[in-house]
């Protein structure tokens, strides 16, 4: 692996960040500072005028507008972070407290109809959070997600009820996705076929191995034909036989979907299936563009990371981010959507 | 828990050229937004098969871990009634002033168990089913409703046993208990509208509490205390005329929906007559009121239910 010193870009680029004081405001008096700052909000002093592009109303599929996510989680070890002695003891005895976990910084992008978008990033970078936000399972801390219809996640995380049989789980899962009983009957054969669990359909779910469970979950999830489809690592589950079976169905679903997001750690799959890649790292949007180029940067980054070359990894990180053109979503006057699907 | 602890080495910066995307928002919807009230009801109607199937499959698997299986659904209230009969009826002599005390007690214990079960399981339906909530997009009100319906389905065989017991043992005399013969008549059918109204009350209360429990898990502890108080305040094991010494206590009892249900069923089954029509009025008001208010409260919090905790 090359460190590609030829394309080196200085990583100290914070001088033009919006948070720092700009030379212009330093030169003037204190009084005018406040006024100048007011004018500068949303307009970093160094930036050129933003390039405006228009998306036709038929083309748009998803618009993510300034979405960020901070999880607030109940934690019983939170007292360790308290400063005061009393507060610390009280919290320790009660054993309750909140921990705040920043998962995603503000992120904006738009996706057009017919696009296949790959989403990559190391573990814990915020990919899954972004997917949850896209499907509306959780509400973003700031910003909103807009789409032509509610995106559907297709993965191995569909909940199943342990006590009831596989057959009942299939029915229950399909009904929970909004299929009518007639549709369930129609799809039942296909789901059983994909899961390959015909012989153990009437066993309770707790007797299934974890592999069998995830196969069943995936098979149930493929029963719907969503317009905006999210696939989360689904291709990597199960043995070769199962993967071959799912591939056909997955291609079908993908073909009829208007727009596809694919979350995967397999760069080969991403390059093969997507015409655009979003790289999320440390909760930030790092790159958004050509699969070849983004994957190349990503490979370099992970290679440095896995060999514990922190500074080199950081250089790749900064260098990639320098190339990013941040997007602001702006709705025509009065057309910002409010209604629900 | 999916939340990562990210270590960010650098502050955020942007260097590339800013882009602004102009678009017409009319074809878009806000993902995860709470639908309007009528749309929400329509959605809920679309998911009626899910509600029914969910409650049926779960009620049938409730006791699958016990070796005696579903027999416990019936055995539990019988044992409970036996305990109350021995302690309260026999030793503390709460049976004084109650005609056909055994029938009175059986109806009280069996019916109140159903009421308590429906409220408790409906109020836990969101907080206890986070995996389901996060994996599927359905109107969340489906869960408390299906929990309440599940309790009704599970209570079906229990009510059959209750009817048999009341008919066979309701007028059984032990010691100096007052006795009047119990007979089967069309009055027994009043049981069905009374239980239907009770189910409406429970669903409404359950929806209110489901939102509270989802926001603050601590409420769960209060619910178990609350149902205990409610149990003693509903004249399940004694007659109110004997213990309610103050005017306001009587007033409270007469406006307690659980007491109204018990009173209606007791009059129809044990005393072969009608309860005070005022019971029906109170119960009807509770049913409509709590269902409407509970539904509105629940619908208003629709976007908060999938949140990680």
UniProtKB/TrEMBL annotation, chain B:
This protein's record includes keyword Cell membrane: yes
Residue intervals of the ABC-2 type transporter transmembrane domain: 66-267
Entry's Gene Ontology molecular function annotations: ABC-type transporter activity
Keyword field: Cell membrane, Membrane, Transmembrane, Transmembrane helix, Transport
Positions of transmembrane segments: 71-92, 98-115, 152-170, 190-210, 222-240, 278-299
Entry keyword Kinase: no
Annotated localization: Cell inner membrane
GO cellular component terms attached to this protein's record: plasma membrane
Domain of life: Bacteria
UniProt topology in membrane: Multi-pass membrane protein
BP GO terms, sorted: lipopolysaccharide transport
InterPro entries to which the protein is assigned, alphabetical: ABC2_TM
Family stated for the protein in its record: Belongs to the ABC-2 integral membrane protein family.
Protein name from the UniProt record: Transport permease protein
Organism: Nesterenkonia cremea
Biological classification of the source: Bacteria, Bacillati, Actinomycetota, Actinomycetes, Micrococcales
């Amino acid at each position: 692996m090359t460190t590609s010193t030829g394309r080196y870009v200085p990583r100290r680029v914070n001088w033009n960040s919006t948070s720092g004081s700009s030379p212009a405001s330093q030169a003037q008096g204190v009084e005018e500072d406040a006024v100048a700052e007011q004018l500068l909000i949303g307009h970093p002093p160094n930036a050129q005028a933003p390039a405006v592009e228009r998306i036709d109303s038929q083309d748009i599929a998803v618009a993510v507008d300034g979405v960020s996510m901070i999880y607030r989680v109940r934690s019983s070890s939170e007292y360790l972070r308290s400063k005061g002695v009393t507060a610390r003891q009280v919290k320790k005895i009660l054993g309750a407290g909140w921990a705040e976990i920043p998962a995603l910084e503000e992120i904006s992008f738009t996706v057009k109809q017919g696009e296949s978008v790959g989403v990559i990033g190391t573990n814990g970078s915020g990919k899954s959070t972004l997917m949850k936000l896209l499907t509306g399972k959780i509400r973003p801390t700031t910003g909103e997600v807009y789409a032509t219809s509610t995106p559907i996640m297709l993965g191995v995380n569909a909940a199943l009820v342990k006590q009831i049989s596989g057959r009942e789980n299939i029915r229950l899962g399909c009904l929970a996705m909004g299929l009518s009983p007639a549709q369930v009957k129609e799809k039942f054969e296909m789901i059983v076929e994909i899961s390959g669990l015909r012989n153990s359909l009437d066993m309770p779910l707790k007797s299934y191995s974890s592999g069998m469970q995830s196969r069943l979950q995936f098979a149930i999830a493929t029963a719907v034909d969503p317009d905006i489809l999210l696939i989360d690592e689904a291709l990597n589950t199960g043995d070769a036989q199962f993967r071959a079976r799912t591939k056909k169905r997955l291609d079908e679903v993908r073909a009829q979907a208007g727009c596809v997001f694919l979350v995967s750690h397999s760069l080969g799959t991403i390059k093969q299936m997507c015409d655009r890649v979003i790289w999320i790292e440390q909760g930030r949007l790092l790159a958004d563009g050509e699969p070849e180029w983004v994957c190349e940067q990503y490979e370099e980054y992970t290679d440095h990371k896995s060999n514990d070359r922190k500074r080199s990894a950081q250089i790749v990180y900064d260098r990639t981010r320098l190339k990013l053109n941040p997007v602001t979503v702006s709705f025509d006057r009065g057309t910002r959507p409010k209604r629900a699907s | 828990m999916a939340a990562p602890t990210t270590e960010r080495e650098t502050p955020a910066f942007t260097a590339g050229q800013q882009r602004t995307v102009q678009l017409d928002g009319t074809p878009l919807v806000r993902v995860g937004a709470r639908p309007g009230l009528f749309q929400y009801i329509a959605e809920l109607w679309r998911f009626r098969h899910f509600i029914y199937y969910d409650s049926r499959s779960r009620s049938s698997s409730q006791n699958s871990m016990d070796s005696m299986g579903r027999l416990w659904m019936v055995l539990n209230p019988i044992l409970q009634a036996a305990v109350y009969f021995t302690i309260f009826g026999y030793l503390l002599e709460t049976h004084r002033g109650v005609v056909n005390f055994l029938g009175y007690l059986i109806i009280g214990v069996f019916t109140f168990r159903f009421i308590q079960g429906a409220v408790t399981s409906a109020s836990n339906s969101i907080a206890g089913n986070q995996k389901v909530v996060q994996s599927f997009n359905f109107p969340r009100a489906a869960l408390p409703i299906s929990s309440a319906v599940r309790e009704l389905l599970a209570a079906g065989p229990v009510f059959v046993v209750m009817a048999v017991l009341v008919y066979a043992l309701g007028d059984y005399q032990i010691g100096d208990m007052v006795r009047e013969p119990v007979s089967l008549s069309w009055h027994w059918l009043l049981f069905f509208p009374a239980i239907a109204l009770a189910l409406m009350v429970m669903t409404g209360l359950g929806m209110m509490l489901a939102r509270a429990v989802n926001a603050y898990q601590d409420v769960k502890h209060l619910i178990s205390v609350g149902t205990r108080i409610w149990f003693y305040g509903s004249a399940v094991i004694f007659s109110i005329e004997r213990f309610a010494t103050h005017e306001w206590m009587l007033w409270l009892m007469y406006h307690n929906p659980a007491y109204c249900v018990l009173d209606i069923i007791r009059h129809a089954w044990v005393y072969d007559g009608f309860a005070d029509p005022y019971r029906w009025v109170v119960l009807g008001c509770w049913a409509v009121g709590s269902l409407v208010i509970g539904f509105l409260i629940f619908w208003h919090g629709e976007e908060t239910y999938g949140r990680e905790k």
